[in-house]
Amino acid sequence: MKNGILVIDVGGTNVKVLLSGRKTPVKIPSGPGMTAGKMVASVKKAASAWKYGAVSIGLPAAVVRGRILHEPVHLGKGWMRFNFRKAFGKPVKILNDAAMQALGSYEGGTMLFLGLGTGLGSALVIDGVIAPLELAHLPYKKGEYEDYVGVRAIRRFGKRRWRKHVKDVVDLLRKALVADYVVLGGGNAKLLKKLPEAALLGSNSNAFLGGQRLWQ
Q1: Which of 18, 71, 149, 166 has the fewest beta carbons under 10 Å from its own?
Q2: In what order do the strands lie in the sheet with 92-96?
Q3: Which of 178, 176, 94 is nearest to 132 (CA)?
Q4: CA max distance for the chain
C-alpha cells in the first residue's frame, strides 16, 4: 500500500504505534484516562513525520465487523461512537487487540491466542479465518478467568501460583476449543518459567504484523 500502514496497538498501560517498514514502535502511556479522542491526538502527534495510507487499530474490546460493541474496560470512554476514519483522514480497520496479535502469530491449523496482559485477551484462528473471543469475563472458579490470569492475579496470588493458574486455564481452553496449539502473548507471558503443553511464546510485535495483514 502506498505510504505504508500505521498500526496502533491500544493497551491498558500503553498505546504502541508503528509504521510498516519501521522496526521500533512509539509508546504512549494510556490508562483509565485514555479516551478515543486523546488516543488519536497523541498518535497523530507521534506519527506527524510519517506518511501512511491506512490505519489499523487493535483495541481491548469486543469488535465485530469493525464495530466496537462496548467501551474498553481499562480505558476511558467515548470509543464506541468515535469516527476514526474522519479523525485520521485515512481508511481505518478496527479489530480486537488480541485478534490482531493472533493474526500476526498464526502459523496454520487451529490456533488459540491468549494475551496475558492487563486483562486476558483471546482469539481463535481456524484455517486462516479469525474469530475474536471474549473469555476474560466468563465465570471461572470464584470469579472470572481474568481474575486468575490477568495482572491483578499476579499481585493477588504471587508469580508461582499465578503460573499454575495460567497452566490450568491454557490446558482447559485448548481442550475445550479443540486447538492444535496455543500462542501466549501479552506483556506478562514472559514471566512464565515453563510453557504449558502445546503452547508457544508469542511476541507483542506480532500485533504489528497482524495489523499489516488486515490489509492483505
Answers
A1: 71
A2: 26-29, 14-19, 5-10, 54-59, 92-96
A3: 94
A4: 51
Q: Given this model, what pLDDT does residue 24 score?
A: 93
Q: How far is CA 145 from CA 61, 79, 116, in A?
A: 16, 24, 11
Q: Provide DSSP, 123-139.
A: EEEETTEEEEE--TTSE
CA atoms 200, 96, 156, 15: torsion sign: positive
CA gap 192, 161 in Å, rounded: 11
The rounded distance, in Å, linking the Cα atoms of 27 and 107 is 27
Q: Which cell numbers hold the place of 31? A: 490508562
In whole angstroms, give the CA distance from residue 80 to residue 71. 6
User: Is residue 55 scored above 70 in pLDDT?
Assistant: yes
Tell me the pTM.
0.86
